[in-house]
Amino acid sequence: MKITRRQFIGTAAAVTASAGLFSFNMLGKADKAVADTESKVQIFRNVCPRNCYDTCAQISYVEDGVLKKVEGDPKSTYTNGKLCLKGYNYTRRVYSPDRIKYPMKQVPRGSGNWERISWDEAMNTIAEKILELKKRYGSTLPICMNKYSGNFGITHYGIEGTMSSIGYTTRAVGTPCWPAGIDAQTYDFGTIINNDPEDLANSNYIILWGSNCAWTGIHSLPFIMKARERGAKIVAIDPILTSTASKADLYIQIKPSTDGALALGMAKYILDNDLVDWEYATANSIGFEEWVDYVRKNITLDWAAEKTGVPKDVIIQLAREYATTKPAAIWVGYGMQRHTNGGQNVRIIDALGVMTGNVGKSGGGVNYAHLETWGFNYHAMSMPVPEGSVGVPGPNGTYSDRAVNMNNFAAEVQALTDPPVKMLWIAARNPVSQDPDTNDIIKMFNSMELVVTVDSFFNKTVELSDIVLPATTHFEDWDVMASYWHYWVGINQRAIEPMYEAKSDVEIAMALSKAMNALEPGSCTYPTEGDPEEWVAKEFNDGIHSMLGISSYKDLLDGPRKAKISPVAWADGQFRTPSGKIEIRCERAAQNGLPALPVWVEELKTSAQYPIRFMTPHPQHGIHSQFQNLDWMMAANPEPVVEIHPELAAQYGIGEGDMVRIYNDLGEVKIKAHLTRTTSPDVIVSYEAWYKDSPFNVNYTVKAIPADMGKLATGMDGIAFHDNFVAIEKA
Amino acid sequence: MAVLLCLPDGALRIERLQSRLEILLALSRIFVAGGENLVYTLPELERAYSRWLKEEEESEGKELQSLLQADYGRKDLVYEFNRLFVGPKAPPVPPYESVYLSKDRLVMQESTLDVRRWYRQEELMPVSRSNEPDDFIATELEFGAYLLARAADYVKEQQRGKAIAFLDAYNAFYDEHLVWLEEFVRCLKKATQEKVFLIIGTIILKTVRPIEYQKGGLT
Amino acid sequence: MGNWEWPLVIFTVLGQTAIGMIFCLWLTERKRSKAGAAPSPEYQSFIKSSVLVSGLLLAVAMLASLFHLGQPLAAYRALTHLSTSWLSREILFFALTLGVWVYLFVLSRKPGARLTGILALTSVLGLLGIISSALIYTLPRVPAWNNLGPVLFFLLTGLLLGALVIAALGRKALGPAEMKQTVCLALGSVLVSLLLYLFYFSGLKVTPEGGATAQILFASPLFWLRAVVGWLLPLILLLVTVSKKEKPQPGLILLVLTCGVVGELLGRGLFYLSAVGIQILGLL
Amino acid sequence: MSKQLGFLHNSEKCVGCRGCEMACKNEYQSDASVRWRQVYQLREEDFALPTRIFISVGCNHCQNPECLRVCPVGAYSKRVDGIVIHDQERCIGCKLCTMACPYNRPQYNTTVKKVEKCNLCYERLDRGEKPACVAACVLEALEVVEINEELDYKTGVLKTLPGMPDPKITNPSIRFIGPKQGVQIRRDV
Description:
The complex is a heterotetramer of chains A (about 725), B (about 220), C (about 280) and D (about 190).
Chain A: H1 12-19, E1 27-29, H2 32-36, E2 41-47, E3 57-63, E4 66-72, H3 90-94, E5 104-106, E6 114-116, H4 119-137, E7 143-147, H5 158-166, E8 170-173, H6 179-189, E9 205-209, H7 213-216, H8 221-229, E10 233-237, E11 250-252, H9 259-272, H10 278-284, E12 285-286, H11 288-298, H12 301-308, H13 312-324, E13 328-332, H14 342-355, E14 366-367, E15 392-393, E16 399-400, E17 402-405, H15 409-415, E18 423-427, H16 431-434, H17 438-446, E19 450-455, H18 460-463, E20 467-470, E21 479-482, E22 488-492, H19 505-519, H20 532-537, H21 542-548, E23 561-562, E24 582-583, H22 587-591, E25 612-615, H23 631-636, E26 641-644, H24 646-651, E27 659-663, E28 668-675, E29 683-685, H25 711-714, E30 725-730
Parallel strand pairs in A: 7-8, 7-18, 8-17, 9-10, 9-13, 10-11, 12-24, 13-14, 18-19, 19-20, 25-29, 26-28
Antiparallel strand pairs in A: 2-3, 3-4, 5-6, 5-20, 15-16, 21-22, 22-23, 25-30, 27-28, 27-30
Helix pairs in contact in A: 4-19, 5-19, 6-14, 9-12, 9-13, 9-14, 15-17
Chain C: H1 6-35, H2 41-66, H3 86-109, H4 116-136, H5 149-169, H6 176-204, H7 208-219, H8 221-243, H9 250-273, E1 282-283
Chain D: E1 5-10, H1 19-28, E2 38-42, E3 54-57, H2 66-70, E4 76-78, E5 84-86, H3 96-100, E6 107-109, E7 114-116, H4 122-126, H5 132-136, E8 142-146, H6 149-153, E9 157-158, E10 174-177, E11 183-185
């Protein structure tokens, strides 16, 4: 007779005696307490830590230690209990058999010859290399960190802390995505603050200027639609007829990079027809008259129409409606500032908001982003350098880290000689697929003595690393997350134990510190021990407590909290500029070699050789190189396409589904064509992503051309990703 | 076939169980210790397999011959082991039951939890240094070996009923779980041309089987 | 667009052939029994072997059909929805045909047994099976199939291949008239099949999906191979055969049979491959 | 006649975010080879202006379900509320329903070698919850409604949209609010 597990009632009582004789490797005596949790569904609070507007509050359902499903947390009125398509894929990320499971080393780099190593060996190898480089060059400057937005949880700033704790190092500084716009608003207002996106519902006129929030910030749309139900008009200005633009009452297909010209044309009309809110503008800004003078003298509607490709009557209509339908809100998307004049264009749009008195109003604003809820301790990050550390000499015998531009990383790292960079530490970042000029990035990697990458999946950067360390997912970590768009802050609980041998960035820092101090006591200041929950607790301070109306981080276990700050940016008229006013005329901009006024700066134009603009905006099925590799996403969206206007396609004899070779002097990429009139005849579009088992990467043709701004607030200028000019042919 | 004997004096004896148990353990250790330790774990497998062959009264098979001839220290064996089973690149033959038996090719699925229940019934749980899914190949094989060891213990203690219960439990565990190894080996054979791993696959197919036993002798 | 469904191709073509054979045997047997002539030993062994071959083909066909299923071991359940499912009915008729065939087989081994009745019964059940098969595909969703086409094509496949196998097996045992009748049956089937297709194509164009089916067929080299091997060659060879007085050469019959089998297999494969269903038109 | 539940999809509101599709997968942790719910972008050329217009389609729980008619094992049944249920236990993987459905909704799971499809989350409905797709719809473009004459008389409620199969085939229990197209200032004219 056959039996099943249910029928087999072992003889556990006798186990102890004889089990002792059996030599176990994998199994051991069960912990009664753990066993008791069987089949009880536990609910945890999590927050999606991705580089995304929505930073969704999540609830994870865990049964017997296993993550079963993830839902939106209804306690956040912004995300309203709903996730995006990516957020529903998390079980696939956590339990994908593709995950990186153990520390491993590859000799030689890129060979595919991987050996599994223990954490101890990994940490020792890295520690020895750090110490050896330090000895060889007299400082830790040959060690270079490249970290950014793979996980925006606050404890992930422990990556920066790791570097500080070993000494002065070389750091990739900057942010590729949004710095030109940040600087523009920093010049104008003193910093970035957007109205609470939930306040969009109070608007009577909304311009989505280069924002495809249907893909990149879906949870804001209900507020926009609520405004529309009340009668608000929705305008979308975008070179691409996106899913978002498809919903607009008025869609304006603007020539890329000419947004400032459109705004100037609007300003001209507003001036000429005296629709200016003089009272607001003169009371709250400096240099306004001077700019008005510029507009009056230099701008004509014909010029603006010619420049932007937007007919004069449409500019007039837009200007009139924007200036008279109050409150009117503008959402400045990050796409529109990824140009060599991107920051300047944002400044012009800011000025438009100021002249119509829409700044500082509920339902108004020129909304870009904010960092108001990010006032944490950055405890994991703030580590002192070891005694006697040497770095880049500053005044009075002080030292500092050496900055390299994240946005021109390959070239700048290779240019460093004194001392050269010899080791890379990469975490929360995938430069080989996401940075411009992929070929140069690969060349730079090849010049390293040691490349360490912390990641969850075998992406292109891991492929070119010497040591890879397995990263936890956010369900395996304690953390706290804030948004750069909405006003909610949430705690992220450890819902499941870290899988395999995965560690969080802080745990890795502690392990490295242990190894370094064993080899050379005092060589690393990072604590060697600490409970993950305690690390999070240490990020909180009174400012955060009072902002969120909590007395302890533990209060967040009941649900995320919305910051108790004005939902209207700049409502108090207290601007954070040196003058305390909106600086339409901005001395700091002038000091940084930029126009002091929001005047027109010529856009970068296509050449005869490379006559087509290749735009590579954010995808729907992923965020940068995350998510698209997961099985559900690969099934739903198996391969990339390039969107080509039928007229352009016809010129090259390209039909639907044909492969297209897209190339310039930097490199090339081959993508399948999709013919569509959602783009214009001189712009082709493919959405950046990392597909599993695919060489697809849009960055082969992208030059590391800097955007005009970014230095002031983020240390480095941004990248003009969308000034990417190519030629095409049928492959 | 194992033989469970009840001798005329009432004594209980079992034959050919030990070799089975040892080979399960040897296979388990291959995956516990990983590609980097094949130089230690392969000879162990070789010994266990050779004993198994002898006990099953087969000649020393071809597989064993080539296994004997293999150079266990070859570095490329390590790389191939990791490529197949470990990573960091998505491994084509992940060594977890649920990837093959669950409707998704994911870890930590229903079958994983059922394996966990099996362990718990014996008051066991995975305690290895890395937090592997409960249905990691090495853990399952070890548990199989453990059930057989318990049966052997009871034979020693002359407790016939309990010995049989554990043999049956092993068979049930095989039917409910270990059977995935057939699919695992099928995938392995598709994914590699490296002889050593093909042989390990063959050994798994031949030796990780239900125990057929005869309740022989006089009772 | 559909797939090249090998299990279904084998199942339908072989199954139809088997039933076509039994039908031809019935025609022959009916005439003989009317004439009341005593069967020659040759004829007896022809009957025996023909019945055996038809049964084997039927069995192989039904076995092949299992490979189409995700759960072959649960195939028996396919009988449980006779109320509306033509697939259930198909299986029922095929199972009955096979059951009755067993009796036919036993009788065929008994010298002097009268087979007309049982052959008729087997044929009728088998033909109902073929019609049920065809009606499975008469789906409103698939315009190319949603007509009399499948029924006629499936029946013609049975008649053509059945007649050709019988002609091949009975090259010694059948009298000249019987042979002529069988060959004519095959010739008629090819001719009707060809004409029917021309007519069928003109009908396909009416719907976009049907048009797509036609397009797939015309664009496929396999379709043109099927046209030459399955229609043109058999047509010419059979015309030549029929025009001559003497019994056809066994080699020639075998050649036509080979052409016919290849043609029908290709044709059936294309039948499944070229199916275009009405569906939501949009990007996925 | 007993009632008929179905979906009302508002393509004026739907931005094709595909949240419904993935929420469905999250709820059932369904295999990568199947898509119970699928978002389609309708063809640009079928509308006055080229726009990204979407519909979201799960099982339409048709009044004349072809899947139910052709299934040889009787795996399909229709509840009194009109929901068409597929019993995977009975399914033998003959795939005939996948050929018969004009909406491609019964999907063949290549891992378990059986068909499966949307069941309108009847278990959630029976508990008084919304189906996973409806609950996840950020823009509230998807609803469960009772399909009846009253609904069909409402202005703006459509039985079909360009690109959808003729509803006469199966009489699907899905209704649409048609898309609205704004003014476009385009550079290709």
